[in-house]
Design goal:
Mean pLDDT: 94
Largest sheet: none
CATH class: Mainly Alpha
Number of helices: 4
Distance between the termini: 19 Å
Order of helices and strands: HHHH
Shape: globular
Strand content: under 5%
Length: 155
């Protein structure tokens, strides 16, 4: 539900959720640099493709928010890592965290969206994040490799 006292969804609630998703996309773009650096050169293409996907989505959200007259969140210079990335398995685990983070942000967009085009964008972004996460969970040796409800808390 919306955060305002009436429970009504508005462009403002949608824009706030999009801004949160933008922050998650900034984090993912930065984080995939770390992921790629820890991978064998033959495996870096997957990280590069994921980074490009997040960069493209980030740019799309920036353009959307700017078009609406909102002030899009800016990228930070760096982000704190949730754990040290010292191996390819650690890199895959970080990629899972990045994809799970963007999935959670896009679920919030779904919850707050008033425009059908925004819901379509969120569903697409959520699905793509889960597809990438499945690959990374496999590389990290995690099971299960899929989540029944991507972006939602496990409990």
């Amino acid at each position: 539900m919306a955060d305002d006292s009436t429970g009504a969804l508005t462009e403002a609630t949608e824009n706030a959720a999009l801004d949160d998703a933008l922050t998650a996309e900034h984090t993912a773009v930065w984080g995939y640099g770390v992921v790629g650096a820890a991978l064998d050169p033959t495996a870096q293409g997957t990280a590069s493709a994921a980074e490009t996907a997040h960069r493209d989505l980030r740019d799309r959200v920036v353009a959307l928010l700017t078009e609406r007259g909102a002030d899009p969140a800016q990228a930070e210079g760096a982000y704190a890592l949730p754990f040290p990335v010292l191996s390819a398995v650690d890199a895959a685990a970080l990629a899972v965290e990045l994809e799970d983070g963007v999935a959670a942000a896009w679920v919030r967009v779904l919850d707050q969206a008033v425009e059908s085009s925004t819901r379509e964008l969120a569903v697409t972004a959520l699905g793509e994040a889960e597809v990438r996460a499945v690959s990374w969970r496999t590389a990290a040796g995690r099971t299960p490799v899929t989540t029944p409800f991507p972006g939602l808390p496990a409990s």
